[in-house]
Amino acid sequence: MPLFDSHCHLEDAAFDADRGAVIARARAAGVRGMMTVGTDVESSRRAAAIAAAEPGVFAAVGIHPHDARLASEAALKELQDLALHPRVRAWGEIGLDFHYLHSPQDLQEKWLERQLAAAAEGGLPVIFHERASRGRFLSIVRAAPPPAGAVVHCFSGTADELEGYLELGFLIGITGRITFPGRGAALRELVRRIPPDRLLVETDAPWLTPDPERKGQPRNEPARVAGVLLRLAAARDEDPGELARRVTENACRLFGIDGLADPEPFG
């Protein structure tokens, strides 16, 4: 099954010791594409450099809502410069997270709006993070929907939230959460409502390792996106091969990827 891991963090320090081997295992497992996603300026730099060096790897740049307190106009300008590289195909992950409030709500909202404008200016699709925003996230993105499209990463919301995202034309990213016996039950029901052209599969590696691997191997990696795909296919009662083809096409369409070409030099 050709697969595209639409959201991972290959730039994370968890992969510093064996990043090349992790990417090789993903390719051996049929993962033809990987989107490595920045969460601040430094991780976005690393993501862009990895994408520039590795065939089939693409990058997203952005400031995560947890780090909104560290954002600045200079940081935004550097991200805009990084986004000019042809291997950078998305802006993210950005959004709102009021569950932990690592950054104040007003700063999260300010930098979500500023980054939405930057993504629109650069013609890039957006990778969204949302948690416990009590409708505020939907209110902001309804006022400024990304012209190049978007995906709601690691969806685990309500039926009403799902309907709101679908009305806006967003794609929905499904992670290893769908394999969790208890916490994944509601998600396994909701994924039946998602049209096939709106689905993506992702690992969020090094986090959210699918069951049963997470019990003994807590670090996730892109090769395990196949396990997400298989559980998603079972929940939707679909052929895994056909679903794999569809979600890979969806990722390539969203991120503007015409085939999986060799990387171009960065810098």
**Given the C-alpha coordinates, what overall shape results?**
globular
Number of domains: 1
**Average pLDDT:** 95
Architecture per CATH nomenclature, i.e. the level-2 architecture: Alpha-Beta Barrel
H/E element order? EHEHEHEHEHEHEHEHH
| Strand element count | 8
CATH topology-level fold name? TIM Barrel
Strand order of the largest sheet: 1-2-3-4-5-6-7-8
β content, as a range?
15-25%
Low-pLDDT stretches: none
Which CATH C-level class is it?
Alpha Beta
Question: In percent, how helical is the residue content?
Answer: 25-40%
Structural class, by secondary structure, is: alpha/beta
Largest sheet geometry: 8 strands, parallel
Specify the CATH homologous superfamily: Metal-dependent hydrolases
Q: Span from first to last CA? A: 34 Å
Number of helices: 9
Which value, in Å, is the CA radius of gyration? 17 Å
Label this structure with key terms.
single chain; TIM Barrel; alpha/beta; 267 residues; globular; eight-stranded parallel beta sheet
In words, what does this structure look like?
The protein is of the alpha/beta class. It has a single domain (3-254), classed as Alpha-Beta Barrel (TIM Barrel). It has 9 helices and 8 strands. It has an 8-stranded parallel sheet. Helix 2 runs parallel beside helix 3. The radius of gyration is 17 Å and the shape is globular. It starts with a strand and ends in a 13-residue tail after the last helix. The model has no long low-confidence stretch (mean pLDDT 95).
